[in-house]
Amino acid sequence: MRRRLFLQILSASLARAAAGKTVLIVASDAGWLACAGGAVAKMTGDGASAILVRVGNDEKESWGLTPEETALRNRTEGERAAKLLGIQEVISFGYRSSELRDVPHTTMRDRLIFLIRHHRPAVLFFPNPHTEQDRNLDRYYVGAAAEDAWHCARFQNYLPAASHSGLAPHIVSEVYYYSPPVDPRRREPESTATFVPQPVRVDIGGQFERKLRAAQVLRTVNRSTAMRLKQSLEAAGRRLPILDVVDESAIDKLVEENLRGLAAVCSEGSGYQLAEEFRYAGIEYDIPAKYLR
Amino acid sequence: MTFLPNTCVERLAVLFFALVLWPWPCPAQPQNRTIVAISAGGGDYLKGAGGTLARFIDEGYKVYVIQVGNDEKYSIGMGPAETRLANNGDAERAAKALGVTEIVNLNNKTGELSQLSSNELRNEMSTLLRFYKPQKLFLPDPFLHYEAEWDQFWVGRAAEETNYSNNDVFLAELTRIGLKGYSVPETYYYSVRRPYRPGEGGHNGARLEAVDISKTFQHKVDACLQLRTTNRVYAEHVRWRLQLMNRPSPLLEKMDAAAVDALAREWISELASTIGAKHGFSQGEEFNYHGSAPGQTQPLPPWILERAKPMPRKQ
Fold it and tell me: Which of B75, B243, B266 sits opposite A157 (nearest CB)?
């Protein structure tokens, strides 16, 4: 009986995966757009549907606004940016950004397992908790919970209440770990694809303009970034000419410079003009090579 | 007046005094040939260190396993309680197949170990280390990348802490009842599911230790094949993933015990040969090793020696 149920679940999962749904689990809007916006735009451009899960509320990313207003503005802008990249739905957990250490790992993980089982994606993006020298610990906590959720969502004895209510176990076939390109050893494979996710580069030359337009929608975050940069420069007795007058056009230019620079760093040695870097776990991961021949 | 043993009884008394009561210099304490392996689940230590432990068992070591999680999550078609019993039975059989002396199961809920106080977990481990007084400790490496099962991290972190926080100042109540603080001479950090990264291991006093397990590999496989419940879940998941990616394998067309065993054997074999290829073995295991083997002492690091002054001579 249970065996038959498992096979039915499996068939349902196969049918949904064929639709090519992608779920992105992110700590903050600006972070995922900068690191993975082009690859996501590429997938949605090829017909995949995508869901964005915002774990942090971005309440601290503003200049001169209260946390409440900041969170609301950033949520609205994040949703608009996501729409520009072809994302159908945005789910915001609303946890306070930069306070994610206080959210129990299993609480965050179990909410993510619920969503994985509900949406049954074929592809998952989440921050890489194993990258080194990334100062943003929100990405670490979200990445740890998301990686654990990816692993646990396939076992029926996690979230038994959800299993009993019809949210059956699900395996996500492909995973992209994203992170800013700060780890000096990020391009080393560490081991073979059977045992660890492999470093990959994605050409985003065709999607860069779309990524840029989406990133420029994040006005509250971008203004905060520009003002803080200007303040730091002034404290060091320096100036950046494009920030002499911090208006929308200057901020947009700064965003473009940042994203172009980032894409150029990620493309080094790849033959692409503009790229994004990931660790990728696909079909080879955790399956002996003999079973793939 | 000088005492000279004349009678037989007197001679025997002198001999007894000389042999037994005279304060001869004590010979070195014999090495405690005991190993403790800490494991998140019932089979994790086997995958990461089974071949090496089998070698030590062949050399006469006794191996005790501290299993932290109850393995209640890993099955197909069984509830948590049934799963726990099935996996624990498998773990007992696997341990026996390897030659493990005993498994102490702490029975915490698998998959929820982050909820457990790491101090509490550390203290449970510390108690057992004081009891067993092992020469060697095996623990899951909490510093490894891309270990998707986070229980390895929570267990490894607590296990590492017990190793440097188990002196008499900790757990005073244990010290009071006679279980005194104990420091394990040798520590082996193991990786359950992957080879170490090139260049990983070996900072400060540690070193990457590669062990040739060619002679005990079959022993390791035999033990791992006893983990029938988790091996079956793995096989079902592999088949599911291959179908999701439209790459079904003929090797898993018929999902019977032979197919499950063959897949488990192949995974263990690929791990061992991938590690072995790095070190010139046909099959290997890797550890981040820290400590001093019997008869050796750790040299003091130069940043201590450069400031250390000679002791004043006693007059």
Answer: B75
Any A CB within 8 A of B203 CB: no
Per-residue pLDDT tens listing for chain A (293 residues):
444 443 344 344 434 444 589 999 999 999 999 999 999 999 999 999 999 999 999 999 999 999 999 999 999 999 999 999 999 999 999 999 999 999 999 999 999 999 999 999 999 999 999 999 898 999 999 999 999 999 999 999 999 888 888 899 999 999 999 999 999 999 999 999 999 999 999 999 999 999 999 999 999 999 999 999 999 999 999 999 999 999 999 999 999 999 999 999 999 999 999 999 999 999 999 999 999 98
SS3 B239: helix
**Chain B closest CA to A257's CA: distance in Å?**
32
B239 vs B228: CA distance, rounded Å:
16
pTM of the entire structure?
0.89
Distance from CA of B280 to the nearest CA of A (A): 16
Question: CB distance A291–B237 less than 8 Å?
Answer: no
Phi, psi of A278 (to 5 degrees): -145, 165
- By C-alpha distance, which of B56, B73, B89, B38 is closest to B192? B38
**Edge-to-edge strand list for the sheet holding B206-212:** B102-108, B62-69, B34-39, B136-140, B186-190, B284-291, B206-212
Q: With contacts defined as CB-CB under 8 Å, which chain A residues touch B111? A: 106, 152, 155, 158
Report the distance separating Cα A129 and Cα A138, nearest Å: 10
Which positions in chain A touch B108 (Cβ < 8 Å)?
none
